[in-house]
Amino acid sequence: MKKSLKFKLGFGLMLSFLMISACQTSSETPSDEFSLDYEKYVLDNGLEVVLHQDKSDPKVAVAVLYHVGSNREKPGRTGFAHFFEHMLFQNSENVGAGNFIKYVNELGGTFNGGTSTDQTVYFETVPSDALEKILWMESDRMGFFINTISEWGLENEKQVVKNEKRQGVDNRPYGHKDYVQLKNLYPEGHPYSWDVIGSLEDLQNATIADVKEFYAKYYGAGNATLAIAGDIDITKAKELVNKYFAEIGSGPAVETIEPMPAVLDETKLFYHEDKFANLPDVQMIWPTVEEYNNDMWALNMLGQLLTDGKKSPLYKVIVEEKKLAPNVYAYNRSSEIAGTFNVGARAFDGVNLNDLRAAIFEGFEKFEKEGFTDADMERIKIGAETGVYNSVSSVFSKAYQLASYNTFTSNPGYISTNLEKTLAVTREDVMRVYNKYIKGQHYLATSFVPVGQQDLVLEGSVMAEVVEEPIVQGAEGNLDKYERDVEFEKTPSKIDRSVIPELDGELSFAPPSIATDELSNGMKVFHIYQDELPMAQFSLRIKGGMYLDDPAKVGTASLLDNMLMEGTANKTPEELEEALGQLGASVSVRTSREYITISGNSLAKNYDEVLSIVKEILLEPRWDEKEFDRIKSSALNAIQQSNANPNAIASRVFNEVLYGKEHIFSNPTSGTAASVASITLDDLKTYYSKNFSPSIASFHFVGAIEKEDVMNSLSTLEVWIPKDVSFPEYEVKTNVDDSRIFFVDYPDAKQSVINIGRVAMENGNDDYAAASVSNYRLGSGSGSILFKELRLEKGYTYGAYSGYSRTMDGAVFQASSSVRSNVTKESVDLFKELLDNYSEDFSDEDVEVTKNSILRSNTQSYETYGSLLGILQNISTYNLDLDYIQKDEAELKAMDKAEIQKLINEFMNPDDLIYVVVGDGKTQLPRLGNTGLGKPVLINKDEESLKIEK
User: Fold this and answer.
1) Mind listing the domains of the chain with CATH numbers?
2) Closest Cα to residue 421, out of 410, 432, 429?
3) Gap between the Cα atoms of 370 and 373, Å rounded
4) Mind listing the pLDDT tens digit for each residue in 374-397?
5) Global pTM exceeds 0.90
């Protein structure tokens, strides 16, 4: 069955959906239409295969989606689907232990997996010559995996998954919300009554028998979809699929789970005093419908109408009028067998959540009374059109969507139907679902508040049950007692699966052509023509950012980026938002340490109108005092939240230790509570008048518009008058006295955050590319030494990485991880050992693997509009040559082991590295005195500026 989907997304939201023949040529396709061709067929074993050819880049994406998620688990074995996803990366009969990750990295590819309530998906994107090797590997774990399971592998992966839970749930503010909500929304035993990550106790109790049962029941070919998208030959791809997958067993038939929506006979209220939270949080949940139920699209739109934008009723009441929270959200979430409608907000400090709930209901009343306009609905629908194009900008996104839609609708091309149904929603549909599912209906609400602030929770709330794991040294036991290399009997195959497939053909690609120009006022222009999609993506970057902040008022630039989006001289904030919304465009302003970037994304046909609005944003700020007050309150709220986040604390302390508190980079870009509190609207105006100039700005464009037309559009910006901008000088004064390990006590932290590094390059970053090469084997990804040793071998962490971050005048080397609390010392010791020995252990084989992996991965540098825009921004920001990637490649090819070792010794010298650890002081600090790093220096986490406790 070969099909091609075609959308015509034209004026007035007219959608034409045509089925066209396989032989239709691109010349017969109108320029304003988007087509996504696919071919679907089914093997005799039930495996459903979807193929999509896209020869625009020499790469291919493979997605294997199994129709199994946490909704198939048994009570007492929660989290098992996600745990099993991890297990499949460990080993298989013919690929071998640890080789899946190793091979994909050596191929220059990317990979991952994911588990939800309803599915588990595995995916890779690699250069197209590696398709057969990837299919060999994916088929091996589909049909030739189970015999390789060992006690060591099972116990090791338990620790990795438990680390993921600690990092994402137990050690994070508000991390237990999902658990509390699902447990109390659905009846006991309902497939959605537990969260995907599951419980630590259930994970610990998992056995090899459980693994084998789960694999046999759900991982047959008949319960999977294989989608391949990219630079493929359809006939050859079919041959390879048949070769590697046709003999795999279909597995038992998996029963369909019928919709099981939640039913609330009463309103339920629960609260939790969260020791990691600094602000009160409320979320209200109403049961709705399963995915693809006819009411889903109207419920989706209802959520947007209630809270998206400054005109929305809940925003008006909660944010503008009552000033209870910096923002409010509402959204519908429909899954395979049930759905929920969610409304909530994280309030300002001290706000009583009863007042916030009353404001939510007042917003509902406003919605009922005042309704919404046709323009509101049109804005949402135009945004959906633009979203279709953005959602298929990479071969990976195409492969995943084809697999997902096929699994849940039996139609790989359901993306078009999905859009059609969005565009077909009427005003009557929206009000009908509001009245049916929300108005006057029972709901579940959770109140999460800081410890000691129970008086802020919703009246009538009962304490929620939350399971928190104690910190116990040695609780996980010793993996050394398990045998690692267990012999197993290989599963018979019709082909010799021990033969590793060769790469197919010669890999070649041409980088995109980059055009440059300059406006009369000095603003540089960089352009790439790309017409695969009828889209325009652009950015205007102004150098400066936080670097030009007054040191006493750090956070000024960050406040300014928000202020620029709050209307223009000719448009109120609402009118600005509406103007962009009616064009289906997104525009944002972001501040970093060294620049402020205005970014835009739209359909190419709307680019000129969007740029005209950006010109207003840039040159005609509104300077609305009311909006400034709101933005400032929101910024202070965000800072208060970050001060409760162990990762944010670790980053703040690391930077201040690294640079010294007199350096501007010792501060967070957002500033501190004290610095932001002192900032006035006049400070923003002063920053803008002194530091916004085309002489330090660059414009970057990628899309389906020729350079000449882009230059014509930019001529309107030539009225922007250049000025001299003064850049201060700062000296790096690393805060090192008699020790190189700094400890921040975060009581009861279930994970310890470890940051290690140094300012590696000052006064220039000419060595950045070469230094990044030297780091590749150490910590650049899942194939690195740090990842292998700390996660795969020891199970200390969910991930460990290292790398260089470039600034305009230097670069920082940093290695980091979040490890389970009771192996903090062991992790520091292992980090130190690996860093101490990295240079000496670097081998000739490492040189070749590094070169091959980086060179092959560069094939993925040119695919999406975002990646191309990133190349242009690198060129302008760091004054790089237009062909810097090719020059970096040439330098890489010429590098030898001695040169790499020299770079390691110069920029990663272990004697110069600073260690910062944020963890539980009462259990971990005493253990860190014997690491070879001297006595730990204790830092007070509650101080905004580094305060060392002697």
Assistant:
1) 37-257 (3.30.830.10), 268-393+410-463 (3.30.830.10), 515-719 (3.30.830.10), 741-949 (3.30.830.10)
2) 429
3) 9
4) 999 999 999 998 888 888 889 999
5) yes
